[in-house]
Structure formats: C-alpha cells, structure tokens
Amino acid sequence: MASLAGRAVVGIPDQLNTELIKGYLDAVIRRDASAVDHYFDPDVEYMVNGTPSPDPSKVLPPISAECHAALPWLGLYRGRAALKGFLAHMHRNLEVTAFGPREVISEGDKAAAFGWFRLHALSTGRTVDISYSILFELRAGLIVRYHFLENTFDVAGAFRASGSWLIDTDGTKHGVPPTRCISEE
Asked: Which of 23, 70, 85, 167 has an alpha carbon within 20 to 30 A of 145's alpha carbon?
C-alpha cells in the first residue's frame, strides 16, 4: 500500500517520503493555503529554529528572546491551526521565491532535507539566499514532526532597517556590514 492519496499507509517507501517533502517545499513557494491540510498530521509539531521558552524536557533547543523579538514568527507550533497561523505571520513579512538545489535523505519514517532558499523581506525589499536543514518525521503519508533550522543571522540581516552591528570575536571588535542583496552581487 504505497499511495499518498489513501493516507492509510503503514510504511511508506523512502522515495514517496522524498516526493512528499519536495511537494511541500514547492507548495511554500506557491503560498498554497491547502498545503497544511494536505501534507501535515493534525497534531504536527512544527519548529522553526527553536522554542521561545525553555523546553521542560530539554529536548528542543531554545532561541534567545532577542532573536525571537527580531524574528517573531520563529518558534514552536503544535497542530494544523497553529501552523496555519505561523505561515500567515511569516508571509506577512517575507516571501520564499525559490529553493536552490536540495538534497532529501529518507530512511523509514525519518527524513532530512538540506539546501538553500531565496527570501524576499517585504519591509526592506532585500532578497537573500538562506541555507537550511529540516528534520522530518512522517507517518501514514503525513508530516508529524518538522524541525527547521536556518541561518538566522542572514535572515535578520535581510530585515535590518538601519544601524550598525558590532561583533567581538578573536579579541577584536568587527563592524558587520549590511546584508548584501542578491541583486548586489
């Protein structure tokens, strides 16, 4: 029984997991509102870069209050309704306009995807390429766990409106220039 349409599948071959993941990522670019119901389990755990508060079980990584304040859509979302709210919040701030070459590795009910996506920050007009990795857990043809990690430094840089960043590494203070847009390269 290896059909995604039936959804009553006990074990899905790795190739179908890969197709499901690629289908969802393509739906993100299209801003397909039906994608949540089509690809995700009703009780999905969807995490973007960490949790805004410490995880009592210490399994999920926390994000700093400063990072969450700068990029308030980051965090942990449980269930389809919360996921739809996250996507609406994210899309009010940015567009994902492309995915670069991506690799999906799948074994059993787990998969991982690696690659880059093109982010267009609506408030600043900047467009940048952001690297990502995603851990998936799948069951019966649906995503039950989605943990997304991205280069938040470059995401924050795309939304940087003004000011300077001063970083202290290797015993020296370094000024961080504004993030370069795709069109500037």
From this structure: 70
Domain 14-160 has CATH 3.40.50.1980: no
What end-to-end distance do the CA atoms of the chain give, in Å?
49
Strands (E), the chain: 40-48, 75-78, 94-99, 103-107, 110-121, 127-139, 142-150, 165-169, 172-176
Q: Residue 139 in contact with residue 160, Cβ under 8 Å?
A: no
The pLDDT tens digits of the residues spanning 65-86 come to: 888 899 999 999 999 999 999 9
Pairing of strands 40-48, 110-121: unpaired
Q: Which tens digit of pLDDT belongs to each residue from 23-52?
A: 999 998 898 989 999 999 999 999 999 998
Do residues 109 and 138 make contact, with C-beta atoms less than 8 angstroms apart? yes
In Å, how far from its chain's centre is CA 184?
A: 25
Do 28 and 143 touch, CB atoms closer than 8 A? no
